[in-house]
Design goal:
About 5% of the residues have low confidence. The chain is globular, with a radius of gyration of 18 Å. The chain has one domain: Porin, CATH 2.40.160. It has two helices and 14 strands. It is mostly beta strands and about 250 residues long.
């Protein structure tokens, strides 16, 4: 608990630092040079790359983001409750992400996003450690995108799995009446662990109600390598309902 409290205090300090950066924004601009946003969510199941991180149970999530609009540079932090660390024999029930990068336009209508993301699992006590760092690059056109993430460390506790990769393609299509159709397919390659590699899919819809956004998605990962302590397949097809707010 002491470790968790110290990590949460550090997360709060980062959030305050991001907030202070926003104070330099010029009030006369329609879009300030520096922007900070915060987000909070509750979900019926935290699925990451198709695999449940919360033992097919609800999770609480939240984070903060800073963007420098003139340059496209950004920093962010995000956290979620999880169960899989304890289910794997370790300690801790929090995933804490810290990321940064740069985004912009390559040409008219063609966007890019490159950066790095560190997945921190406080006091996870697993060996090898579950802590993971990935570099990523994304190109988008219209509602579609393609993204590749590459681990420079072992991947989520898999031994000797450095240089694993995840390919993600998808689209978020405005279908009218405030509804956005969310489509995704991805493939996780776990280096030197072929049995743990898999493909995942998602189809869902999101609607912004102003006071909050609500999304409902069907998610599936075609793998038999990830199970809960009770024997449930953590990649099985399931419906995920999420309610989120950005402010």
């Amino acid at each position: 608990m002491k470790h968790l409290k110290s990590q949460l205090k550090l997360a709060a300090a980062i959030t305050l630092a991001l907030s202070s950066l926003a104070s330099t924004a010029r009030a006369e601009d329609a879009k300030p040079d520096n922007e900070v946003s915060f987000n909070a969510a509750v979900t019926t199941d935290y699925r990451y790359r198709g695999i449940s991180q919360s033992r097919l149970k609800p999770a609480l999530q939240g984070g903060a983001d800073y963007v420098n609009n003139p340059t496209g540079f950004y920093l962010g932090t995000w956290a979620s409750t999880i169960h899989w660390i304890k289910d794997s024999g370790g300690d801790g029930n929090i995933e804490w992400d810290i990321y940064g990068g740069k985004k912009g336009e390559i040409a008219k209508g063609i966007t890019y996003d490159v950066g790095g993301l560190y997945y921190l699992y406080p006091s996870n006590s697993l060996s090898p450690s579950a802590n993971t760092f990935e570099l990523y690059g994304q190109v988008g056109y219209g509602p579609g995108y393609i993204k590749y993430s590459h681990s420079t460390t072992n991947l989520f506790g898999f031994a000797d799995s450095k240089n694993s990769g995840y390919l993600d393609v998808g689209a978020n299509i405005d279908i009218g009446t405030g509804l956005v159709l969310n489509l995704h397919a991805g493939h996780q390659k776990v280096k030197r662990h072929d049995a743990a590699s898999y493909t995942d899919y998602k189809i869902g819809v999101t609607k912004d109600f102003g006071i909050c956004s609500v999304s409902l998605a069907a998610v599936h990962a075609n793998t038999d390598a990830y199970f809960s302590p009770s024997g449930k397949n953590l990649g099985k097809t399931g419906a995920v309902l999420s309610v989120s707010k950005t402010f």
